[in-house]
Every structure is written in C-alpha cells, then in structure tokens.
Amino acid sequence: MSEETMDRQVTRPAPRFDPAPGAVGFPDPADRVRLRRGVAAAFSARGVERVRERSRRMLAELVDEMLQDGPPADLCEAVLGPFPVAVICELMGVPAADRQGMHTWSRQILSSSPGAEAGEKARREMGAYFCDLIGLREGGTGEDVASLLGAAVGREEVTLDEAVGLAVLLQNDGEAVTDTCGRMFYALLTRPELAERLRREPEIRPGAVTELLRPLPHRDPVGLSRIAGEGTMPVRMEAELLMDALLDGVPGLRLAVPAEDVRFRKGSQGRGPAALPVTW
User: With left for phi above 0 and alpha for psi between -120 and 50, is residue 100 left, alpha or beta?
Assistant: First the structure.
C-alpha cells in the first residue's frame, strides 16, 4: 500500500489493520526500497543458505522426537509449527530461549480471536523486545536481521522506529510459513500417489516444491503490503527441507483421518490446517 490509502475506504483484512501514516507495513515505493536495503542480505540466497544446515539439524530433532513419541501425531504441532518459528528466529537473530514467547506474540497478532486489544498489546510487547535487541546490536557486524537493522540505524539509514516496525513485520511474516507448509503437506497427504512418486524420484522434488507453493499464497489477507523477495527464499528452503525430512525420514507417513475431517484454522490471517493428524 501507499500513502494514497490513508483515510480512504478500501478493503482491509481486519479493522485493526488500518494503516497509520509512516507505518512500515504500508510504505510507498521509495521508502520500501530504503527499508529493504538494510535487511536484503539476510533474505538473499546466500543469507538463507547461511542458516540451512542449522535449520536441517533443528528439523531432524523435531522429526526424531515425533517418531520417538510414536503415532498418531499432529504434524502441525510436532513439526510444521515449531520448525518455521525456529527458522525465522534464527534469521532474525532471536535467541533460542526467547522463541516460544515470540511465537505466542505472533499468534496473538495474527489471530483475530483474542481481540484487537490483545493483538495490539502483543504487537507493542514484540516491538519493545526488538527495540532492545536492535539497540544491543547497533554497530555490530552480525548477519542476522537484528544486527543488520542495528547497523542501518547506526548509519542513520533508517530510524529506530522504522527498524522495529520492520522487524515485527518480518517476524510475523516468517511465522505465517506454518500455514503455507501445512497446506502444502495437506495437498501431499491427500494425494498419496504424488507423495510416493516424490519418494521414488527425489530429483523432481525442487520442481514439485515450486508447483505446490505456486497456488498457495504465503499470506492470505487482502490489503497487506509485501516486501518483494523476502519471505520467498526462506519459504522455499523450509519447504524443501520439510519434504526431504518427512518423505525420507517417515516413509509411511499418511493422514490418520479422512481428508474431509481435517480442520482449517479460523479467525486468523493464515488459513492453514489447525491440525494434521498423521500416522506411519
């Protein structure tokens, strides 16, 4: 969105998403380029590859824990939820000890069920957290988003308020990968012949990821701005790692309930499955 949407009656995903002047979620083109410049390196192919191996190890641990607990399992709760949270926090530079709190804030922000007041409270608390984190990283040389934003603030390329607003936006956008991957695996698990072919022919998986993600918008709501090129690389990496880990590591993976019994999330910006009951 641009400044032209201010104070106009246009489609919103929810009442509390009315843009305010200067909000980083609704920048004009020139501001969007300026804001992107500071964090572009973290979401480039090289930046995402920086966390791929660490992400692979975190995913392997989640899959191992699910297998140890035995079937049936909720794939969303066991893997598809915690994995994207861990990846976006790794990219953002959020310490492991703070990730559960960050996830709680994001769900309150992205869901309409707690109400506008609870969502705004969570947004303020997340903003205060990133304000402290970015302040601590100011002048640093790290490659995570908080460090890059701290350096940009130090160079006076962005204000601290802009850096915080962008961090909150990127964190929540990264959490939305949970719903995207949930829908991707719903598509796979309801087409067992496709899943079996991908097990037999791993060389076609990158193309399959592209085709499976193509009809699945990363974020559902109408009216929210995008930061072109960010969210895309991490989504693809996470989808590729998930496909390899679950197709190879859990060869008998299948739905434990009829496809029509899978419930999809309501009252949220995301439209992924609320749960994916599976067995193997």
Answer: alpha
Tokens at 269, concatenated: 């910006």
Can you point out the beta strands (E) in 28-180? 73-74
Identify the residue with better confidence: 176 or 183. 183
What whole-number distance in Å separates Cα of residue 221 and Cα of residue 172? Answer: 13
- Please give the model's pTM, rounded to 2 decimal places: 0.83
Strands 73-74 and 277-279: antiparallel
Helix then strand then coil, in percent of the chain rounded to 5, is: 65, 5, 30
Distance CA 253, CA 131 (A): 42
- In whole angstroms, what is the distance from residue 233 CA to residue 244 CA? 17
Q: How would you classify the pairing of strands 73-74 and 254-255?
A: unpaired
Q: pLDDT band for 129, please (50, 70, 90 cuts).
A: very high
Dihedral angle of Cα 151, 133, 123, 153, to the nearest 10 degrees: -20
The answer, yes or no, to whether residue 224 has pLDDT greater than 50, is no
| Token pair 């930061």: residue | 227
